[in-house]
Amino acid sequence: EETIVLNQPQELVVSLSANETEVILGQSIQFNILSNQPFSNIQNVSWSDTIGMSCVNCLDPILTPLYSGTYIVEVEDINGCIATDEISIMVKNNMPLYIPSAFSPNNDGLNDVFRVFSGIEDIRINSMLIFDRQGNLVFEGTDLKPNFDGWDGRHGSELLNAGVFIYLIEAENLIGEKEIFKGSVTLMK
């Protein structure tokens, strides 16, 4: 007869850095799993939903979510102990665009082009129409890239005089939702 004492291993605890977070459609978020054990003791990691994740079995994946949802991580250590945690991600579907109210196409390298700015790569400008005060179409652009493409203040090859112009812009996000933006822009010299 022999008495053996079995020491229970330390309970595995994992935690995501937050219970919920909010992102704008097209932006990414990096998950950071905290654990009471060294990462060298982690044997397996699995996520409940891997669509839009940079890796499916790592502790710190980057997620670019298309829709709101709850993401559950299950972690197993070398002793076979399992722990889980979850995080709710709210995806805001707005189109974060900045449309300037003035530009100066004078070839000084600053604000020479009227363009739409966005911090998100997956926004497309389907069309940009620019009208003068009489309602004449002076510029039409399609499939423009935010931050790059736009109107240079010309109608054909002629640089227009200073004045106020009306724009009509159709933007589309990466899941196909479209939004129309209307306003005025001042061409300054």
- Share of helical residues: under 10%
Total count of helical runs of at least 4 residues: 0
Question: What is the β-strand count?
Answer: 19
Given as residue ranges, the uncertain stretches (5+ residues, pLDDT < 50) are none
- Rough outline: rod-shaped
Into which percentage range does the β-strand content fall?
over 45%
Succession of helices and strands? EEEEEEEEEEEEEEEEEEE
**Amino- and carboxy-terminal Cα gap:** 99 Å
**Cα-atom Rg, whole angstroms?**
26 Å
- Secondary structure category: mainly beta
Largest sheet: 5 strands, mixed
Strand order of the largest sheet: 10-19-18-13-14
Average residue-wise pLDDT? 90
What does this 3D model show about the protein?
- The structure is a single chain.
- This protein has 189 residues and is mainly beta.
- It has strands at 14-16, 20-24, 29-30, 33-35, 42-47, 62-63, 69-77, 82-92, 97-98, 102-103, 114-115, 117-118, 124-131, 137-144, 150-151, 154-155, 158-159, 163-172, 178-187.
- A five-stranded mixed β-sheet has the order 10-19-18-13-14, with no helix packed on it.
- A hairpin with a 4-residue loop joins β7 and β8 (82-92).
- The model has no long low-confidence stretch (mean pLDDT 90).
Describe the protein's topology.
Elements (H helix, E strand, L loop, with lengths): L13 E3 L3 E5 L4 E2 L2 E3 L6 E6 L14 E2 L5 E9 L4 E11 L4 E2 L3 E2 L10 E2 L1 E2 L5 E8 L5 E8 L5 E2 L2 E2 L2 E2 L3 E10 L5 E10 L2
Parallel strand pairs: 2-8, 10-19
Antiparallel strand pairs: 1-4, 3-6, 5-7, 7-8, 9-12, 11-15, 13-14, 13-18, 16-17, 18-19
